[in-house]
């Protein structure tokens, strides 16, 4: 039990909260066919964080968040500029912007020698769920002992705040979000400002991606933006049901993934831990595979009769 | 440092560097050409899925090879594994976007994250294995040409050359596929097979590029050069050539720069070289570039001010807008105190006459006039044929008498 409290509880909670908030936002990205915005933004978090580290010399969360946020905004502006001037589709513009910035991040990291010491590319990609150890979690009573609770890894409260923020955003912006996803022209006629809603959605995606980035790595963030909502989309035609499905899938992937990564090798008699972030993505992918094969609404809707 | 770079640039910095440079050059050209086709097919980011999907195959191949011979670093085997899992990922994207209601963007994102996640899990398996050569694998993530063996460089160079030849041979079919699939079909082109060829070539470029730029950045080499080329031309063959040259230049500059210092990662530098070429094009390309846009806009604003000012002069109205006054003054149409010069009065009369011709033209040929849009500000004789202008002049209603 104490082993669970110390080693497994925090990774489970962090992975679960990250998955839930990313999957919630992901529903709208998938509906709007903008799934790859999450991909682009979580890639450019790396140059943002490295740049802020080189400028401020610290890895304090506020500096990192500002750096990553600035990088996300620069990327969005760059994508828009390339799309308009070059007259290429948005995905190509995105490909130019985020790969170039990621390359810049890698270069800064290697050149400054910060790699290995404080930051490295691998860490940025697959996160560090396993290192979230709660040293004070020695016994069950620690759960209501304020002193022990203060020793919880700071990532936990960060992702909890983000989950709260994302839920609030969803509640407040629900109507314009839904309208804009299905019929932007109608939304505009209703005074819903689809452009502003779109921008806010992308900003929330950036916030969720950046907060989750440090704890779980960018790959898990991308997987959670896309896989659970995509699987949920194949289960139902109703948006509210889709949201519920996506949350269930996200939670299932997080729990199963973390448990499998921690204990799976042990069941096979091998003493090693696997990457939890990677495992969560794999479980999410398996769920999506099942949904693609058996989901009741997996085919494109037939044209309405008559 | 400058000297070291110059040595590398002139291919005189040692045998290995020279080999790798030539290989990267060929790879860049091949990636630019394949990327152009994929861009024209509006599937640019599919290469992102392909490149991320190589990781599990790479790691699985490493494990297998390590179990057999104790050291997993055997390039042909690793590339084979990478190609196999990339093909699987590609098939998954195709199947998902074809048979389910999900869009291709979701399919790409799902495949890249899940395959990469699986790869990461396998990497942690490798970390727990007591085998040599583990450090070599991280070179495939962000690319490292520094430690490349001569035999590896030969293999990659030969593969890149082969790809380039295949692309040149297939270019007609592929272009037809990108621009007019229906026409291609009537010409007896098997669309599915052509599409498979294109994706196969993309996959091959990705796998060959793994060692040079790393799997996260190889996607850049198939997207940035074609987008760069798009700024310079509207013609497909020219697009292919320019993209190939831009890709080759990026490979050449990036690899030579990275050979200067061991802390300079080759993959990132290749991509940044490609991006620098792109930025230059974005700024200075004729017609499409930022500078050209700004100049166009400036000219347009000037023309509008000039025309409005002259019309005001012709009507004998006062002009208040300082920009209009400045432009008219610079053109010599008005004096410093705002009074029209003789030249200005003549120009005002011309402008007035021209405006009347345009008004008449708009009444007589409303659709043609609408198509001209804002170009109406140019001299009428440049836009309309002389006989039409003659006709308009003849049918011009008599001018209302001045008061």
UniProtKB/TrEMBL annotation, chain A:
Give a single Pfam family match.
ABC-3
Give the residue spans that cross the bilayer. Answer: 6-29, 61-79, 91-109, 195-213, 248-268, 274-292
Q: Does the keyword Transmembrane helix apply?
A: yes
Where is the protein situated, by its record's location annotation?
Cell membrane
Q: How does it sit in the membrane?
A: Multi-pass membrane protein
Query: Which keywords describe this protein according to UniProt?
Result: Cell membrane, Membrane, Transmembrane, Transmembrane helix, Transport
Fetch the InterPro entries from UniProt.
ABC_BtuC-like, ABC_TroCD
* Segments forming a coiled coil: none
Q: Which family does it belong to?
A: Belongs to the ABC-3 integral membrane protein family.
The protein depicted here goes by the name Metal ABC transporter permease
Q: Which organism is it from?
A: Halomonas salifodinae
From TrEMBL, chain B:
Q: Which organism is it from?
A: Halomonas salifodinae
Q: Which family does it belong to?
A: Belongs to the ABC-3 integral membrane protein family.
Is Oxidoreductase one of the keywords UniProt gives this record? no
> How does the record say this protein sits in the membrane?
Multi-pass membrane protein
Cell compartments where the protein resides: Cell membrane
Q: What is its main location?
A: membrane
State what protein this is by name.
Metal ABC transporter permease
UniProt keywords (A-Z) are: Cell membrane, Membrane, Transmembrane, Transmembrane helix, Transport
């Amino acid at each position: 039990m104490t082993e669970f409290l110390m080693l497994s509880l925090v990774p489970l909670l962090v992975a679960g909260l990250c998955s839930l908030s990313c999957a919630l936002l992901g529903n709208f990205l998938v509906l709007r066919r903008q799934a790859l915005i999450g991909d682009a933004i979580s890639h450019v978090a790396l140059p943002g964080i490295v740049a802020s580290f080189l400028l401020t010399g610290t890895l304090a969360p506020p500096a990192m968040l500002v750096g990553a946020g600035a990088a996300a905004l620069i990327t969005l502006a760059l994508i828009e500029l390339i799309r308009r001037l070059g007259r290429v589709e948005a995905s190509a513009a995105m490909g130019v912007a985020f790969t170039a910035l990621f390359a810049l991040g890698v270069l800064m990291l290697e050149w400054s020698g910060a790699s290995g010491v404080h930051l490295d590319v691998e860490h940025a990609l697959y996160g560090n769920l396993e290192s979230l150890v709660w040293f004070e979690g020695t016994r069950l009573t620690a759960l209501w002992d304020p002193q022990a609770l203060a020793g919880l890894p700071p990532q936990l409260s960060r992702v909890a705040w983000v989950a709260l923020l994302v839920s609030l955003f969803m509640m407040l912006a629900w109507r314009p979000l839904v309208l804009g996803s299905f019929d932007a022209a109608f939304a505009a006629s209703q005074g819903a400002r689809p452009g502003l809603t779109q921008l806010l959605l992308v900003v929330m995606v950036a916030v969720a991606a950046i907060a989750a980035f440090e704890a779980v790595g960018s790959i898990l963030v991308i997987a959670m933006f896309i896989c659970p909502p995509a699987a949920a989309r194949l289960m139902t035609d109703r948006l509210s049901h889709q949201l519920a499905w996506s949350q269930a899938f996200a939670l299932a992937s997080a729990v199963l993934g973390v448990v499998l990564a921690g204990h799976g090798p042990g069941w096979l008699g091998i003493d090693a831990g696997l990457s939890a972030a990677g495992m969560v993505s794999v479980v999410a992918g398996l769920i999506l595979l099942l949904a693609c094969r058996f989901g009741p609404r997996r085919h494109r809707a037939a044209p309405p009769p008559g | 440092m400058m000297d070291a770079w110059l040595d590398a640039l002139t291919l005189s910095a040692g045998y290995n560097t020279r080999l790798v440079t030539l290989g990267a050059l060929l790879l860049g050209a091949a990636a630019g050409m394949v990327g152009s086709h994929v861009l024209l097919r509006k599937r640019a980011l599919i290469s992102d899925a392909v490149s991320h999907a190589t990781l599990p195959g790479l790691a699985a191949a490493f494990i297998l090879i390590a179990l057999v011979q104790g050291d997993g670093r055997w390039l042909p085997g690793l590339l084979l594994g990478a190609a196999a899992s990339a093909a699987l990922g590609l098939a998954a994207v195709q199947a998902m976007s074809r048979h389910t209601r999900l869009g291709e963007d979701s399919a790409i994102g799902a495949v890249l994250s899940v395959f990469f996640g699986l790869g990461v899990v396998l990497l942690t398996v490798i970390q727990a294995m007591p085998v040599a050569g583990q450090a070599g694998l991280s070179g495939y993530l962000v690319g490292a040409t520094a430690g490349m063996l001569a035999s590896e460089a030969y293999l990659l160079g030969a593969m890149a050359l082969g790809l380039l030849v295949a692309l040149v041979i297939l270019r007609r079919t592929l272009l037809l596929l990108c621009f007019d699939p229906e026409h291609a079909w009537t010409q007896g082109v098997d669309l599915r097979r052509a599409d498979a060829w294109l994706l196969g070539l993309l996959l091959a470029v990705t796998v060959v590029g793994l060692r040079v730029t790393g799997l996260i950045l190889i996607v850049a080499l198939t997207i940035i050069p074609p987008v760069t080329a798009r700024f310079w031309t509207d013609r497909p063959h020219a697009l292919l050539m320019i993209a190939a040259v831009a890709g080759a230049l990026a490979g050449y500059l990036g690899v030579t720069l990275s050979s200067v210092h061991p802390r300079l990662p080759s993959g990132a530098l290749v991509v940044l070289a490609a991006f620098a070429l792109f930025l230059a094009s974005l700024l200075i390309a004729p017609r499409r570039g930022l500078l050209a846009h700004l100049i166009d806009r400036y000219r347009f604003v000037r023309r509008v001010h000039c025309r409005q000012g002259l019309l005001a002069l012709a009507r004998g109205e006062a002009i208040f807008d300082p920009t209009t006054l400045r432009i008219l003054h610079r053109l010599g149409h008005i004096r410093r105190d705002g009074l029209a010069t003789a030249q200005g009065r003549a120009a005002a009369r011309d402008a007035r006459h021209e405006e009347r011709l345009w008004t008449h033209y708009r009444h007589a040929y409303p659709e043609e006039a609408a198509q001209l849009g804002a170009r109406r500000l140019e001299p009428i004789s440049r836009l309309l044929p002389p006989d039409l202008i003659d006709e308009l002049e003849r049918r011009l209603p008599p001018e209302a008498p001045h008061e």
